[in-house]
Amino acid sequence: MPEEEMNDLDDEASDFEPESDAEEEDVKLPEAKANAIYDRDGIMDKLGDMSWPQDVPWIHRLSVDVDRGQEQEVDVNDDLARELSFYTQALEGTREAYEKLHSMGLPFLRPSDYYAEMVKTDSHMEKVKGRLLAEKRKMEEADERKKAREAKKLAKEVQAQKQKERAKQKKGEIEAVKKWRKQRQQSGFSGGDKDGDLPFDFEDGKTFERTGKKRPGVAPGDRSGGKSRQGGVKGRKGMDKKMKKRETRDSKFGFGGKKGMKKQNTAKTTDDLRGFKQSDTSGNKKRKR
Amino acid sequence: MGKKRKHREAESDTNGSEANKEDAASERPKRTLLGWKEKPKENEDNATPGFRNKEKVLVTCSRRINFRYRHLMLNVVSLLPHCKKDNKVESKETKGATLNELVELRNCSSCLFFECRKHLDLYLWMAKCPNGPSVKFLVNAVHTMEELKLTGNHLKGSRPLLTFSANFSKDAHWMLLKEMLIQIFGIPKGHQKSKPYHDHVFAFSIVDDHIWFRNYQIAVPHNESDKVSRGSLEKMTLVEVGPRFCLNPIKIFGGSFGGPTLYENPFYVSPNQIRALQKKQKTGKYAKKVKAKTRRKMHELSNPLEPDEFADMWKE
What we know:
Chain A is mainly alpha-helical. Chain A is 52% helix and 1% strand.
C-alpha cells in the first residue's frame, strides 16, 4: 500500500516539476504557444483603415522616432540602465522636436511668467519640496558627522604635536636664558653688546601678547585666554581668586546635591575647630556653640 | 439627446472659428473611411490642409478597482484633456456590446478601459471605437504621480511630445500599437482645454516585448520668454513627472472590444496561471517531503541494518 501511495505522489511530482520549471517566469515560451495567431495582413489592413493620412502635418502628430544607437542592450531587470535608456530616448526626441518646432517658428517652452493650472497641485509640490530638502539635510548632516569624526582624529594628533612643540619651545627658551645668564656671569656682568642678540631672540615682541586665538564667544577683555569659561579641571590655571574660593568651598561643602546627606561629621572633624574663632561672640550670645 | 445636439452645435461653432486659423476652410472629407460622415466626432480626414483631430477618449474603469489603479486612471484623466471620465461599469458589462454603446452615447472615438480583476491585476483595454482595432494589455509596474520621488510638474493640458523607440517599426503589430498610441495619447491641436506650450514629453519604449511609458517634464534654464537659445539646448534636462506603467500586450482584436483576433502574444502568461503555478509548487513541496519519508522507510525496511556489536554496551 505505501508503494501505491508513493507511485501516485511520484506521478504528481513529476507532472509538476517540468511545468513549474518551464513556466515559472513568464518569458519566452515559444513551444507553449506555437499556434499564436498573428494575422499580419489583417493588422496592416486595420492600420491602413484607422490611421490618419500620410500627409497630415507633423504638428498634429507630434511624434518622434528615436533610434537608440545600441540595439536592445538594455536588460529589463537593470533598473538604472533601463531608466537611463528611456531618459536618453526622451531627450533625443525632445531635441529633434525642438529643432522642428524652432524651424516652424512655434513657441516651444513655457515662459517663466506664464501661470496656469499645473497637473500637480501646489500643495503636492510643497510636499515634494519638503521631502527633497529633508533628504538634502540628511545627507549634509551625515557628511558633517563624518567630517567631524575625521577632524576629531586629526585634531588629537595636531594637538599632541602642538603640545610637543610648545614644550620644546619652552625648554628652548629656558635653556637660552640659562645660557645667557651663564654668559653674563662668565663675562662678569659687563653688560656688553653680546647680550642684545641671543637670549631675547625668542622675544619678537610677542611674549606679552596673547595669541589672537581665543575660543569663540569669549569677551575681548578676557585675559585668561578664554579658558576661564571652560569647565573641567584640566583647563584651570588656578590663578583666579574665584577658582580658589570655589575650590575651598567645594572641598568643604561638597558639590551640592541632596541637602544634608553629603557631609557628615567624622571623628576627626567634630574636634576640628579651625573654622571658628574662639573669641567671636558677635552673634547671639545665648546660642549654644 | 438635446445635450447631444447642443454639443454638436457648439462643436460646429468652434469648427467655424477654428477653421479660420487653418489655411483653407474645412471641406467635406474627400475620402470617407468606413462611413464616418454621419458621425462628426470622428476623425475628419482631409488630404489637403484642414485636418482636424477630433479625437475624444472615454476613460472608465470596472468596479472593485484598486486604489493604486484608480489613482493611475485619474492621472491619465488629468494628462489627457480630450478625455471624458465616466462612471464605473458593472463587471457583467465589461465585454462587447455595452461598452461600445457607452462610448457612442458619450460621443467618443476611442476608449481606455481599466479593468481590475481580483483586486490584483489591472488590464487596460485600448480601443478605437466604432470599428477600429482594440488591444488588451496587462499593466505592470505602476507608479502614480502622487509619489514624492517623481518631482516634475507641467502644465495641465499642454500637448506632449511623443517619442517612440525605433523598434516600433520592426513589426506589424508594433506599428499598429504605435498608431493607436499617437491617436489616443496625443492631444488634438487646438483643443479647447489644451495649453500652448510643449513642456512635457511622453516616452514609449519597447523593452522585452513590453511597452514602457514615462512622462518627463522638459526643464530648460532660460531667461527670456520664448527664445530658447542654442546653448541652453544642451542644458536641457528632463524631470520625471509620472505616472509610470508597463504594458504587456495580450491580444489585438479587429473590432472594438471584440471581433476577430488579429494578434496573440505568444509569451503572455496570465497572472492567474503564474499564481496557480506558484501555489502548486508549494503543494509539491509537501508531497515531496511525504514521499521522501515513505521512501526512506521502505529503504530501511528493505535493507535492515546489521545489529550493532556495541548496542548493548551501555544498556543497564
